[in-house]
Amino acid sequence: MTTNPITEPLNVPLPAGARADLWQRGQYRVIFKDRQLKLEGDPLESPSVCITAVQWPDGAVDDGSTEEGPEVHIHVCGDDGLSPAQARELAAMIVEAADELDGWTAR
User: Fold this and answer.
1) pLDDT tens, 22-37?
2) What CA–CA distance (Å, rounded) separates 33 from 68?
3) Which of 2, 17, 38, 101 has CA 20 to 30 A from 53's CA?
4) Gap between the terminal Cα atoms of the chain
């Protein structure tokens, strides 16, 4: 009995600024991109926005029709609230992230 080895897809470009997890059995990988609101103090407690999606070996990014859809994740840590200006900046980051995901999945 012979088995086909799992090969990693080669030279599959990432969207600009994105990073990727390892290929899962050569069939797909999760790609992601983070943005962080710049606040004074501990950067680990600054709000951040991360976008994630599934990418196929042909370079296409899944739009959610066959696998998990692209997602926007918002991380808010710490006890301090945001000023109105910081809240607007975070809101703008969320909209920008959603727009970028739309661009990733456009064909």
Assistant:
1) 999 889 999 999 998 8
2) 17
3) 38
4) 40
